[in-house]
Design brief:
The complex is a heterodimer of chains A (280) and B (267). By secondary structure, chain A is an all-alpha fold. Chain A has one domain (3-274). Chain A has helices spanning 3-21, 25-52, 56-59, 64-76, 87-95, 98-103, 108-141, 155-186, 190-204, 218-223, 231-237, 244-273. The mean pLDDT of chain A is 84. Chain B has 267 residues and is mainly α. Chain B has one domain (3-8, 18-261). Chain B has helices at 3-19, 22-50, 58-83, 85-90, 95-100, 105-112, 119-136, 142-173, 185-191, 200-209, 212-215, 217-224, 236-239, 242-260. Chain B is globular and about 60 Å long. Chain B starts with a helix and ends in a 7-residue tail after the last helix. Classes of the chains: A mainly alpha (280), B mainly alpha (267). Chain B: InterPro entries: ABC-2_transporter-like. Chain B: The chain crosses the membrane at residues 21-47, 53-75, 119-138, 144-165, 205-223, 235-255. Chain B: Keywords: Membrane, Transmembrane, Transmembrane helix.
Chain lengths: 280, 267
Amino acid sequence: MSPRDLLRPYAAAFVSRFLQMLQYRTAALAGFATQCWWGGIKVMVFAAFYGGSAIAGAASSMSLAQAISYTWLAQGLLVLLPWLGDPEVAQAVRTGAVAYDRLRPVDAYALWFARSAGWIAARLLPRMALMAAFAAVVLPLAGLGEWAWQPPANAVAGVAFLLSVVLALLLSTAMVMLLNVAATAALNERGISAVATPVVIVFSGNLLPLALLPDAWQAALLVQPLAGLFDIPARLYFGQLSGWHALRGLGLQCFWIVALVAFGRLAMGRTMRSLQVQGG
Amino acid sequence: MGSLPLFFRLMAASISGQARYPASALLLTVGQFLGTGIEVIAVWALFHRFGEVQGWAIGEVALFYGLVNCMFAIADALGRGFDVLGTEFLRTGTFDRLLLRPRPLALQLMGNDVRVSRLGRLLQGVIVLVFATVQAGIAWTPGAVALALFALAGGVALFLGILVLQGTLSFWTVESLEIANVLTYGGVQAAQYPLALYAQWFRRVLTFIVPLACVAYYPALAILGKPDPLGAPGWVGMVSPLAGFVFLAAAFGAWRIGLRRYASTGS
């Protein structure tokens, strides 16, 4: 078989899930409105903290404009956060439909990976587009220019950012796959995600830009895998990581993708051997 | 059975149901505690880096934060029924069963699912209040305690009102929309910082449309004995929590309009 034939089932799984998720437009719009409000409050709080302190520039490696752009960027990339396993996988496990996936002559890990990636991408792209329209176009037009989402530092930074977002999508999928496997093993992933969610929010940079967390933590914050979801793409966007540092950032993302995929395959293999299909 | 005993009976049934799965209830409570606790990290990290914000110290801001989280925890535990009205009652047709019972609808919905896990947020709010007391040296005189309880009651009423409005909306949409989170979780987020930080139009929204400032900001100023940087007189905090009850009454008004146009989905 040619490589194209080999990849076809996974590409089909990705595309069909992508198109399926695009159907949920009302939910996406409601979620978008919530994110705009959220981002707006954060921006006002940042403005207050930065405005009140004369030493703002010295106290932080991040300017107010960057903190604001970071906030909108994080709101747009929100669905990259691995809160939950893919609900379709969880449902397949509960109903026993997982047995069909086991029978298909394809790699089960890769098939689920492609599906979950489609699930995440379909929620990511419209939200990014809407968020950019709101924060980069509507806000300046409404006279709130200082709250707007600024363009990237330069063209190279923009390209590096896009590349990094693609890697972040793969990284996020690798993490969702771990949750999928956990859901398969435990038949219920809610307990796991209740404990994992706060960790993800803090260490991805969604709560606060990692640069605003205490300086003593910075070295550790930057190498942990969750930084690859937001913080590395954002640092590339602002040109804080450039040249060799940019390559190191992208390399770190790749390293975590490979490590988590390897771990996920191993865990999935073990789980599948002991899986008892729920009858139906 | 009178309305109030009925409500307590429903509440007890709901709680004992959750007690059947103690590990799950505990895990969800811990999850709530951690999940709401992360906002504390954000507040703490910002103060750690910037020292203060427009003359407010971390202890003072913690008072707003703790009060608002206690209010929302209680309202959220009581008002789950309105929150899930669309998905769990309207779409399934279970709502018709509630309508047939000769008991107040609101009580049935409120007692339907009293979430034990909300204790996690409540506990976190209380811990932050203790921190605020120590840090800002708040003197809990009988007057201050009474004012805090009044504000708490007003805040619970306000958040319940938001949940009732969310339920009302689902008479039209037949689903529970995430958009209401703008006012519930988003309201918590907005009200846990001093109102004075925000832009003027946003302050007006929080005072006159969704009166979160009336139940949190003004009473907290009175408890702290701090003059309002925006110039509101000191007595405002003593009466402003009433706005929460007015909001709840208005929400029930909208609820009755929605109920009148309710037609069963028939499933």
